[in-house]
Design a protein that fits this description.
Layout (H helix, E strand, L loop, with lengths): L1 H25 L18 E11 L8 E5 L14 E9 L8 E11 L6 E10 L8 E9 L5 E9 L6 E11 L6 E11 L1
Antiparallel strand pairs: 1-3, 1-9, 2-3, 3-4, 4-5, 5-6, 6-7, 7-8, 8-9
């Protein structure tokens, strides 16, 4: 009888510890942090960035490449259903040979049947100066023929960790034959 009682006590203690450990680990799924400075977060600041995006569709080395389309894309007046992958240069001035400050990398989807509209999912990857290695994340509708228009900034990395804000766009030039475009970006990012 004593060996059974000892074995039962040991098993009960084991299962209790296992159960309590499970409960404790499940409660650590999410927790509030009272000291954001633990993560390098200090006072929020607003940064204004101005640069030009060069969307090169037709060239020897295009930076916007179609990768998919719907069966009806070619008959659509808005190219509805066309998906492009981009790796567009970002420069200080409208001249492609001006200082390169980064690249816009992501996808454009022609997403309207009634107007020329892109759904843009991209990261603005900065490669120069104080923002080198940092990114801004963008997800927004771009009504291409409207000036000005806005895109939403919903995140970032590096200097732009926890970024939020918007970008005001203005088409600088567009060639309706080649569809190559230069677009002026004024980005306003609130970040730590």
């Amino acid at each position: 009888m004593a060996p059974f009682k000892t074995s039962f006590t040991i098993l009960a203690a084991f299962f209790s510890l296992t159960f309590l450990t499970t409960i404790k680990s499940e409660t650590l799924f999410a927790r509030e942090l009272s000291a954001p400075d633990q993560f390098g977060l200090k006072t929020e600041k607003m940064t204004h960035l101005r640069f030009y995006l060069h969307d090169i569709v037709t060239a020897q080395h295009p930076t916007a490449v179609p990768v998919a389309q719907a069966a009806t894309t070619n008959t659509s007046s808005t190219s509805f259903g066309l998906v492009l992958v981009i790796d567009d240069p970002l420069t200080v001035g409208p001249d492609l040979n001006s200082t390169l400050v980064g690249r816009a990398q992501g996808m454009f989807v022609m997403s309207s049947q009634s107007e020329v509209s892109l759904t843009m999912m991209m990261n603005l990857v900065f490669t120069e100066g104080a923002y080198k290695g940092s990114t801004l994340s963008v997800l927004a509708q771009n009504l291409v023929l409207k000036n000005p228009r806005e895109l939403a900034i919903f995140g970032g990395t590096g200097v732009f960790r926890f970024a939020r804000g918007y970008i005001q766009l203005r088409t600088h030039t567009i060639n309706m034959t080649t569809l190559n475009a230069i677009v002026k970006y004024d980005a306003y990012a609130l970040h730590y």
